Structure formats: C-alpha cells, structure tokens
C-alpha cells in the first residue's frame, strides 16, 4: 500500500464521516423542529 492509496482511503473515510455527520444533524434538526411546532401549535 503506497502513500497515494493511503491518502485516497483517508479522503474517502473523511467524506463518509462528513456525510454521516450531516445526515445526523439534519435528522436531529428535523426532530427538534417537529417538537417545537407541536409545543407552539398545540
């Protein structure tokens, strides 16, 4: 495994981690927004 392959792997892992994080943030935001709306418009 040479340096280029290691760099490519690292980049792939970072982008996958970024995707997972952004999806989690979106889900959490959606849940919080829904809760807020239900509290406000009960």
Please give a structural write-up.
The chain is mostly helical and 42 residues long. It has 1 helix and no strands. The chain is rod-shaped and about 60 Å long. The protein starts with a helix and ends with a helix. The model has no long low-confidence stretch (mean pLDDT 92).
What is the arithmetic mean of pLDDT? 92
**Helix percentage range:** over 70%
Number of strands: 0
Largest sheet: number of strands, sense, barrel closure: none
Order of helices and strands: H
Percent of residues in β-strands = under 5%
Query: What's the tally of helices?
Result: 1
Offer a quick outline of the entry.
Helices cover 90% and strands 0% of the residues.
Provide keyphrases for this structure:
mainly alpha, about 40 residues, 1 helix
Topology (SSEs and partners):
Blueprint: H1 3-40
